[in-house]
Design goal:
The chain is of the alpha/beta class. It contains 13 helices and eight strands. It starts with a helix and ends in a 10-residue tail after the last helix.
């Protein structure tokens, strides 16, 4: 049976069973990777985690990936969607071997898929999430403007062109900068490359639904603080409870009413502003 990174760190003596139990409890319902939970607990940093795993399993590491140049023939070996979702990046192809920067060396499904797709032997090389994300933004997503407008940026993700157009028009009239995506995977790429101030997404979409998109957004430090509003045709208390419990900031029932959308977006930004002005309280220490 496949072991997760926490169990392997316990076996290596890097963390204790008690620490792992606390981390798994904190992870429940967050959609965050276990490594991120360890960082939030102050147990281990990205770099320390990478070096510890590298020593234990005799793996090489790589840094400053984004600073180098990579030919299109190399980048084409790893689909852009996979690079973004799985946090992998092709480093070098030599003979029948592809060196692949990975954040999770135990993701054998991704490694096996790429081995079959490319007919190459995949050699994983460890890198931190931030290193891989920076390389993806620079080399895969460079066609998307990374700089945000001065206006608040709202990312709208919905597979219905009419719904997207209605929301985009209403928000632009209110002075917001709006970017759109037609499915969850495209929305995830735009979220990583633009870091919007707010995301509105449909619950049901092809390739990646709204709940999967939310989990992917929250699993990455660069985007995990972005508030998200769910659009859904299931207007029920149960669906609203599920959305809020899963981590969505708010919930809007379909059919879309522009007045309601604008009102919820304004309220979300007002809440964020109040939170940013609120005095910070000391974080509770881990027991």
């Amino acid at each position: 049976m496949k072991k997760h990174v926490g169990e392997l760190l316990v076996e290596a003596g890097i963390i204790t069973v008690k620490t792992l139990e606390r981390a798994l409890k904190r992870q429940q319902g967050t959609g965050k990777r276990l490594g991120i939970i360890f960082e939030e607990m102050g147990v281990i940093t990205q770099e320390e985690l990478m070096q510890a795993i590298a020593r234990q399993f005799d793996l090489k590491t790589v840094t400053d990936i984004a600073a180098h140049s990579f030919p299109h023939t190399l980048l084409d070996l790893v689909p852009e969607d996979m690079a973004v979702q799985k946090l992998v990046f092709p480093l070098k192809k030599q003979g029948g071997v592809l060196a692949l920067a990975v954040n999770d060396p135990f993701d054998v499904d991704t490694i096996d898929f790429l081995a079959k797709k490319t007919a190459l032997k995949i050699v994983p090389v460890l890198a931190t999430r931030n290193e891989i994300l920076a390389a993806i933004r620079k080399h895969y997503l460079k066609g998307v403007a990374a700089a945000q407008e001065k206006a608040q940026t709202v990312l709208v993700v919905d597979d219905s062109p009419s719904v997207t157009a209605i929301i985009e028009s209403a928000l632009k009239k209110e002075g917001y900068h709006v970017i759109t995506a037609s499915d969850g995977v495209e929305g995830l790429k735009l979220a990583f490359s633009t870091i919007p101030n707010l995301i509105i997404c449909d619950a049901v979409m092809p390739r990646m639904d709204g709940f999967a998109l939310m989990r992917a957004i929250k699993a990455n430090p660069a985007t995990q603080e972005i508030p998200m509003i769910l659009l859904t045709s299931k207007a029920s208390p149960e669906e609203e409870h599920r959305a809020l419990k899963s981590g969505f900031h708010d919930f809007i029932a379909k059919p879309v009413m522009t007045v309601r959308v604008v009102s919820r977006v304004k309220r979300a930004f007002e809440i964020m502003q109040r939170m940013s002005r609120a005095p910070e309280t000391p974080a509770a220490q881990e027991g």
